[in-house]
Design brief:
seven-stranded mixed sheet, elongated, FAS1 domain, about 25% strand, single chain
Length: about 350
């Protein structure tokens, strides 16, 4: 009978140990990979929950760069609104934007801004529903800010020709920050309440009108038409001729440039496009004679036309661009005073 030697037994034991170690190592690696997979899966789930469960208000509250916005929302009583289930799109100014706004308006802090004013300014950064950046196009949208003591929502001009610019003053710096109740677009400037001048200067469709209003031989139309609501001669109803309307006028008059129109005639012409002391929206226009700063015109509300003292007819092509101190309606022909 064969009896194994001690050396053979020792070698066999070593082989068994090696095999056991390999088995243990393989089992350990499998367990580690399985744990890693589970951990990654959990991380993905947590990220998904973060993106879908954080409200707009919670995002602002947990982001230190929006502490001024948070203080403003709480002071205006809007934090709860943005923490609810209704969907909103918020154009969110950061702390630097608020600092610039407060400094420009002579306030040392958010607490010094009158609550009613602060609330309306904040609402001017909010749009109903979820509007992703890809859904924004050049044109007018309504914010939740209102005109005076009415329920008429203010307009906002969105310019998407190069990025996204709002009312000509504020640019979107970071878009499409998702929240459970809407979306946030970060902006670099607080969007103040717009005047009728704001829309004229922000919308390139009215470039020639702005050139006429600001010509050196004209009254300070910018200051006049920036008069706040409740202060004479505001509010204003402005019939704003497009660039194409001015081009047609130059052809009609047989001149080459706006500079060929004398100062007095230009002043009288521009005044004829403004009704002072009234915010007349399209639904408020009635048939008949209406007095402007430059003379009488005749409104045909049914057909949305304006006839000037010379029998020339202009069509109202865009209505109810609502500002904080009046309303703008775009027209396709320049209204002339009696010549």
């Amino acid at each position: 009978m064969w009896t194994p030697s001690f050396s053979f037994i020792a070698v066999s034991i070593e082989k068994l140990k090696l095999k056991a170690m390999k088995t243990l190592l393989r089992t350990t690696l499998i367990a580690l990979f399985a744990f890693a997979a589970i951990s990654c899966s959990n991380d993905d789930e947590n990220n998904t929950q973060t993106n879908t469960e954080v409200t707009i208000a919670a995002f602002v509250a947990t982001n230190s760069d929006y502490s001024s916005l948070l203080a403003a929302l709480e002071r205006a009583g809007l934090a709860t609104t943005l923490d609810g289930t209704d969907n909103f799109t918020v154009f969110a100014p950061n702390n630097a934007a608020f600092d610039a706004f407060l400094s420009a308006n002579g306030f040392a802090s958010v607490e010094e801004v009158p609550v009613n004013v602060l609330r309306n300014i904040l609402l001017n950064h909010v749009v109903t529903g979820t509007v992703e950046s890809t859904q924004l196009t050049t044109g007018y949208i309504n914010t939740l800010a209102v005109y005076g003591n009415t329920t008429l929502n203010l307009s906002m001009f969105v310019d998407t020709t190069s990025g996204v610019k709002l009312n000509g003053v504020s640019s979107v710096t970071s878009a499409d920050i998702s929240a459970s109740n809407g979306v946030i677009h970060a902006v670099d400037t607080v969007i103040g309440l717009p005047t009728v001048v704001t829309f004229a200067t922000a919308d390139s469709t009215f470039g020639t009108l702005v050139a006429a209003l600001t010509r050196s031989d004209q009254p300070d139309f910018v200051s006049i038409l920036s008069t706040p609501e409740g202060t004479d001669p505001a509010p204003f109803t402005v019939f704003a001729p497009t660039n194409a309307a001015f081009e047609d006028l130059l052809t009609e008059l047989g001149v080459n440039d706006l500079s060929d129109i004398d100062g007095a005639t230009l002043t009288a012409t521009l005044n004829t496009h403004v009704i002072a002391g009234a915010n007349v929206r399209a639904e408020g226009l009635t048939d008949g004679v209406v007095s402007t700063l430059g003379g009488d015109i005749v409104i045909d509300a049914t057909n949305s036309t304006i006839t000037d003292p010379n029998g020339r007819e202009s069509n109202i092509i865009v209505v109810n661009v609502q500002a904080a101190n009046g309303v703008v309606h775009a027209i396709d022909k320049v209204i002339l005073p009696e010549l």
